[in-house]
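An instance follows:
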Amino acid sequence: MTVISLQRIAIGLLMIMGLSSAALAKQKAVVVGAGLAGLTAAYELEQAGYKVTVLEARDRIGGRVYSYSGDFENGQRAEAGGELLDGTHVHQQIHGYINLFGLSLEEVGYDDVAEGAYYLDGQLMAYDDLKGTLGKKVNREYNRFWDELAALADFIADPTHPQDAPNAAELDAQTAAQWLDTLNLHPTARVLAEHHIRGEYNEPSAVSLLFLAQQVKVYENVRDRHIEIFRVSGGNNQLTDAFAAQLNSPVLTNHPVTEIKQTDSGVTVLAAGKAFKADYAVVTVPLKSLSKMDFTPALPNKLTKAAKNINYGSHTKVLLQYEQRFWRNFGLGGDTISELPIGWTWEGTDQQAGETGILVAYTSGDFADGQRYITNEKIIKDKRAQIETMYPGADKLFIKAKVQAWHREPWSGGSYSAYGPGQVTKYWGAFTQPFGRIYFAGEHTDDVFPGYLEGAVRSGQRAALQLTQP
């Protein structure tokens, strides 16, 4: 469904109901959260004639979309939050808004250097050199992992309803780590396999095999060259800013919601010592924040448990600026898959001017959790040391860094949803239906792309359309 068709359907439904524009203008909604899901819902509701108030706990809009420039030199920036978009035929809805608002895209990476490198067994090697450097067996075993991963899609008939798979309970009870155990991979191939699952979702021991199968099914017919290939030019917050600019009323930041009361006639949302009354509420915040809110009447038990239990991945992004893009001296684009705890690095400034460059260090799972309680200064020192190990001489070029640890950020409590064992069969789709006058959105509520920017946008569209239907 395209963005334009969603607006027309919503307005058409209201016309069928016989609501005049004057009557429609009296309909009010409070949207809780100004991330992509909340801004999408607010925009679509206003397009359908609602008067909308958006409340945001942080002092900025965007939620987990966070294009950070701060005091980086040469005006450079990098994405501290959600970053990469798939091709237009994969992430269709977010591309629709990018086009609607007249924004442009930048392609990721360089054309004149190797795509990336592995750092394994103390060696740095281009992706294409895996076979030549570590041997045919490691290469064969790693390819076998990808074949086995692709085969998981066969268990899922419909990725929007993975809980309906014939062996759903069996798959959901198993972790991705236990599944890897059955493959008996070569140790080096196992390290790479764990890295993929950890980096994309969470620690393999914390990821449901049924959830992993669902994700594989979604991408079953998508080629690699269409995956994670774009950013929004000028920063992904160009999109969230564009949404906010379209709204009739400014987003109220520094307004954390503490309680939502509903009656047969409306809702009252309490935030920052104020009461906001409306006909409906759309709650789009991450589940860790939702679980801290009071609801009157109380949420159904299933929703309460889902909010408390659904796993979120642990991911830390450290943005490190260097005087030179030293990785290019190695014939590389900065994309490095490492056996070291740092996990994954890539360049966040490949399409930006300047001799300086920002390397993004993306640490996940247990390696991120292990640094939950240490200072940002120590995290930066640790990442610098590991980058120096992989790229000798790099540290003398270091300028400054920014740490964004989403699993310890108070309003998120994690990076994005990554269902754990037993959670898909219990909670999948739990938040896709309203509770009275309260509707839900957020990447965790999407039935195709949980964890993705596209999922956040889709969920905001869904909630807005549900609210405007008869």
User: Anything to note?
Assistant: The two ends are 19 Å apart (CA to CA). The first strand starts at residue 28 and ends at 32. Residues 255 and 273 are 9 Å apart (CA to CA).
